[in-house]
Automatic annotation (TrEMBL):
<dbReference type="InterPro" id="IPR018365">
    <property type="entry name" value="Cell_cycle_FtsW-rel_CS"/>
</dbReference>
<feature type="transmembrane region" description="Helical">
    <location>
        <begin position="117"/>
        <end position="133"/>
    </location>
</feature>
<feature type="transmembrane region" description="Helical">
    <location>
        <begin position="53"/>
        <end position="71"/>
    </location>
</feature>
<dbReference type="Pfam" id="PF01098">
    <property type="entry name" value="FTSW_RODA_SPOVE"/>
</dbReference>
<feature type="transmembrane region" description="Helical">
    <location>
        <begin position="353"/>
        <end position="375"/>
    </location>
</feature>
<protein>
    <recommendedName>
        <fullName>Probable peptidoglycan glycosyltransferase FtsW</fullName>
        <ecNumber>2.4.99.28</ecNumber>
    </recommendedName>
</protein>
<keyword id="KW-0472">Membrane</keyword>
<comment type="similarity">
    <text>Belongs to the SEDS family. FtsW subfamily.</text>
</comment>
<feature type="transmembrane region" description="Helical">
    <location>
        <begin position="193"/>
        <end position="210"/>
    </location>
</feature>
<keyword id="KW-0133">Cell shape</keyword>
<feature type="transmembrane region" description="Helical">
    <location>
        <begin position="284"/>
        <end position="305"/>
    </location>
</feature>
<keyword id="KW-0812">Transmembrane</keyword>
<keyword id="KW-0808">Transferase</keyword>
<keyword id="KW-0328">Glycosyltransferase</keyword>
<comment type="function">
    <text>Peptidoglycan polymerase that is essential for cell division.</text>
</comment>
<keyword id="KW-1133">Transmembrane helix</keyword>
<feature type="transmembrane region" description="Helical">
    <location>
        <begin position="12"/>
        <end position="41"/>
    </location>
</feature>
């Protein structure tokens, strides 16, 4: 039994996850060493050492959730606990959180900063997957099957958005909608949801116009201005994006060499967090970028593929939600540093510096690994035919019956 379980793990996903984490650790050291000395007065390896501790804890969590049966998360008591904790964590940010980069998103516990919105991502995925897997018999009843969990999703997104952390709120909403659309409802129900969304948008439009000054703050408008005209606002709103362009453009095919980035020398803010891919492009060129994109794409596509082979709706939706989380967050980060979308301050999965981010992503990868293990185990061993009974035993059984 134990050997069969070990053979059923998808070691390709585990390998890619580990490669991304270790690659990210190296790039965090390269991207942060100058900033650590010049801006904070720390040793060059300060952020590197902190991320090593973060990764050690993250790996322990990954291993635990990789062997812990994911079906236990469907328990009603567990769902109540994670939803209550997610809401309390987000409410605590408004009361006790401290502001960093114009967002009150962190709570300090001892010497560590915790970001509850990161943990809310995983809570939403587990909750929606569990609830909609239980509603399969009436999944197309809008009032009973669809709307109650959707209200929870909207409430969580609202709590994150008012921090304000619009990037994370967008990720949570898109991942939640992906799970809802893939929950098994028919096209007619999906169309009703779309029309309901349009109606709600029309109702909220006057409120947005009245409260426009409070919603569209100078900082938020600055991000849009920097996105639309980065070179026209090079010394203000477009400063980050212009220097990101310079980093990406100067890397070329092979890059300037590991540790040789010029833009990280004070020109590119948040080089070890949100803009770490720009440093990768500058130092390792197209080859470094291709490695990260290929690895992230493999995890996402492999997760989606295995979700289609799961016989359990809960496991299938978990795989879709986790894969979607990694894919959507990667797109929003890379879209921001390349000028495809406004900058949102979202970290690049597995690569950027951050304790809460790598911890949540590692737990999510552990759950995804466990789901894929069950899928492969059922395919390989549940379908085995019983071994044929030897002829001698058949004759003995027949004589006994007589």
């Amino acid at each position: 039994m134990f050997k069969k379980i070990l053979k059923s793990y998808d070691y390709s996903i585990i390998t890619v996850y580990l490669l991304l984490c270790f690659f990210g650790l190296v790039m965090i050291y390269s991207a942060s060493m100058v900033m650590a000395v010049q801006y904070y007065g720390y040793s060059p390896d300060f952020f590197y050492q902190k991320q090593k501790i973060n990764l050690a804890l993250a790996f322990v969590c990954f291993l635990f959730f990789a062997v812990f049966p994911y079906k236990a998360f469907k328990n009603k008591k567990f769902l109540i606990i994670i939803t209550v904790l997610a809401i309390l964590g987000l409410l605590a940010v408004g009361l006790f959180g401290h502001v960093t980069n114009n967002a009150q998103s962190w709570i300090q516990i001892g010497t560590r900063n915790i970001q509850p919105s990161e943990f809310a991502k995983l809570s939403v995925i587990i909750y929606l997957s569990a609830v909609y897997s239980k509603k399969q018999t009436y999944i197309n009843q809008l009032d009973k099957g669809v709307l109650p969990p959707l209200m929870f999703l909207i409430f969580i997104c609202f709590l994150i958005a008012i921090e304000p952390d619009n990037g994370t709120a967008m990720i949570v909403f898109l991942v939640g909608m992906m799970i809802i659309i893939c929950s098994g409802m028919n096209f007619k129900t999906i169309l009703k949801l779309v029309l309901l969304g349009i109606l709600l948008s029309a109702i909220l439009a006057p409120f947005v116009l009245i409260k426009g000054d409070e919603i569209f703050t100078e900082n938020r408008l600055g991000r849009i201005t920097g996105f639309l005209d980065p070179f026209g606002t090079e010394q203000k709103e477009g400063f980050q994006l212009v220097n990101s362009y310079l980093a990406i453009g100067s890397g070329g095919l092979k890059g300037l060499g590991l540790g040789q980035s010029v833009q990280k020398l004070g020109y590119l803010p948040e080089a070890h967090t949100d803009f770490i891919m720009a440093v990768i492009a500058e130092e390792l060129g197209l080859f470094g970028v291709a490695f990260v994109l290929s690895a992230l794409s493999y995890i996402v596509l492999r997760g989606f593929y295995l979700s289609t082979r799961s016989r359990d709706p809960f496991g299938s939706m978990l795989a879709i939600g986790i894969s979607g989380l990694i894919g959507i967050q990667s797109f929003i980060n890379l879209g921001g540093i390349s000028g495809l979308i406004p900058i949102t301050g979202v970290p690049l999965p597995f690569i950027s510096y951050g304790g809460s981010s790598i911890l949540v992503l590692s737990i999510a990868m552990g759950i995804l690994t466990n789901v894929t293990m069950f899928v492969r185990y059922e395919e390989r061993f549940k379908g085995e035919k019983a071994a044929p009974i030897p002829r001698e035993r058949k004759l003995k059984a027949a004589s006994t019956d007589k």
